[in-house]
């Protein structure tokens, strides 16, 4: 596997392409762009062969028949959403192990979601006949 050095013109272009790709896959406009840069640098170190092959080329399966970009995106999800700067965008308040867990801390507090519109169809009532 050929790797790219962090200072080469090729790596700068690959980094820009990867950041543009990540901004498309994770369209959080409120996210500080430096968060994507950090994720991109980690991905370049671990998956430079995928980035060099091209992120926007037609699907070319790897030896297992999988699209290598899926592995890249899965890794990016783990990297990006493990960063505290991203937590505020998703409503995650951070780990609670040191606070005794989520059970007594309002783990079901979903005030950032709209109230659910629950309706019941008359035929779905258990034990009653439809009118």
Please give the share of residues in helix. 40-55%
Which oligomeric state applies?
single chain
Number of helices: 4
Terminal residue distance: 70 Å
Radius of gyration: 22 Å
Structure class: mainly alpha
Count the strands? 0
List low-pLDDT spans.
1-7
Largest sheet: none
Report on the structure:
This protein has 131 residues and is mostly helical. It has one domain. The chain is built from 4 helices and no strands. It has helices at 9-25, 33-53, 68-81, 84-90. Helix 1 crosses helix 2 (33-53) and helix 2 runs antiparallel to helix 3 (68-81). The longest helix has 21 residues, at 33-53. The chain is extended and about 55 Å long. Mean pLDDT is 74; it is low at 1-7.
Task: Note the main attributes of this structure.
131 residues, mainly alpha, extended, disordered N terminus
SSE order and pairing:
Elements: H1 9-25, H2 33-53, H3 68-81, H4 84-90
Please sum up the structure shown.
The protein has helices at residues 9-25, 33-53, 68-81, 84-90.
């Amino acid at each position: 596997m050929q790797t790219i050095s962090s200072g080469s013109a090729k790596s700068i272009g690959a980094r820009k392409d990867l950041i543009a790709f990540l901004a498309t896959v994770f369209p959080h406009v409120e996210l500080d762009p430096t968060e994507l840069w950090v994720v991109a640098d980690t991905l370049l170190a671990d998956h430079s062969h995928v980035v060099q092959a091209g992120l926007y080329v037609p699907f070319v399966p790897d030896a297992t028949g999988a699209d290598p970009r899926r592995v890249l995106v899965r890794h990016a999800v783990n990297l990006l959403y493990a960063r505290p700067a991203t937590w505020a965008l998703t409503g995650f308040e951070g780990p609670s192990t040191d606070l005794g867990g989520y059970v007594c801390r309002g783990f079901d507090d979903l005030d950032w979601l709209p109230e659910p519109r629950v309706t019941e169809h008359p035929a779905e009532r258990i034990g009653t006949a439809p009118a």
